Amino acid sequence: MPVFGAYAQYYDILYQDKNYQGECDFLEQIFASYAVIPIHKILDLGCGTGGHALVLRHRGYDVTGVDRSEEMLATARLKASQDSGLSTPPKFQQADIRELALGTTFDAVLAMFAVMSYLTSNANLLAGLAAARQHLVPGGLFVFDAWFGPAVLAERPSDRYRIIKSGGARIVRFAHPETDVVRHTVNVHYRVLYLKGNQIVDEVDESHTLRFLFAQEIVHYLQEAGFEVKELCPFMRLHDDLSERDWNFTVIAEAK
Q: Strands, DSSP E only, in the chain?
């Protein structure tokens, strides 16, 4: 079953409180701290519904967004077309990042909101890292966030649910995780219910498998792919030390 298929129609509602402006502030803080070349042209891997791409385009960056889900990209394109503040929208393209070959390079490559954690095998992870390197100029930055292994093992994922009110209806999402400590993965089973009153109007089931990563392994794989790691830090906290309390961590690497 593909991820972000039918689930995509509820994505922006479920994550309406995600702070894309603040996360783009964080990215610009990273650029200011580590960029050795001017950052103008950005590739957004796993761009989803365009949350980061649209904010960055408003800030003057030339942004190309790539995602393998046509459903997510349809939402991104619709949002861009309805954004009167954009003279030129980001470019959005459907592709699998493991096989990406755009024929051009960028000053920075991003993979936000645990995109790299969806590459669960060593071969797929290396392919994704190689694709990022292939699309960067020397000195360009690769920035991504992922699930941090020590924190996942210290505080195991547990069943959760969210209820969102939307236009007189309710959207309820249940998440049931299954952790595999050998493969370093969490398989999250999502069930989304769309209710009007007490009637279920729509029901979606999807499973998302994500890999949690460890510091030494990601440094090794990045070096293999042609990067120099500049910093590993807690998500949204540049220059802070990682600990087992930090579920999400940020990786900053420079293309050699």
A: 41-45, 62-67, 91-94, 106-111, 136-148, 160-166, 169-180, 185-196, 199-213, 227-234, 248-255
Q: Are strands 62-67 and 136-148 parallel, antiparallel or unpaired?
A: unpaired
Query: Which pTM was predicted?
Result: 0.97
Query: What pLDDT, in 10s, does the model give residues 168-226?
Result: 899 999 999 999 999 999 999 999 999 999 999 999 999 999 999 999 999 999 999 99
Strands 106-111 and 41-45: parallel
- The amino acid present at 208, given as its one-letter code, is H
pLDDT digits 0-9 by tens, 230-242 = 999 999 999 999 9
- Domain hosting 204: range is 152-210
Same domain for 113 and 53? yes
Cβ atoms of 170 and 164 within 8 Å: the answer is: yes
Distance CA 47, CA 112 (A): 8
